[in-house]
Amino acid sequence: MIRYPYRKHNKKSGAGKNNGNSPRYLKIEACLETNLRQIKKLTSDSPDFLMRRFKLGLRAEVPAAIVFLDSMAKTDTVNELIMRSMLSRPSAEVAAEAENAEALYVRIQSHALALGEVKDCDDWSSMMEQLLMGDTIILLEGCEKAIACGTRGGETRAVSEPTTQTVVRGPKEGFVESLFTNISLVRRRIKSSDLTLEMFQVGSTSLTNVAMLYMKNIANPGVVDEVRKRIENINIDAIFESGMVEEMIQENHFTPFPTIFNTERPDTISSNIMEGRVALIVDGTPFVLVMPTVFAQFFQSSSDYEERYDMATVVRLIRYISFIILILGPSLYIALTTYHYEMIPTPLLISILAQRESVPFPAFLEAFILEITFEILREAGIRMPRAGGQTVSVIGALVLGQAAVEAGVVTPLLTIVVALTGIASFAIPAYNMAVAGRLCRFIFMILSAFMGLYGITLGLIALIAHMNSLSSFGVPYMAPFSPFVLESQKDAVLRLPFWMMRKRPKSITSKNQKRMKDGSGISSSDKTTPMQEGGNQGVSAEEE
Question: Which of 160, 292, 374, 396 could make an S-S bridge to 473, C-beta 3.0–4.6 Å?
Answer without folding.
Answer: 292
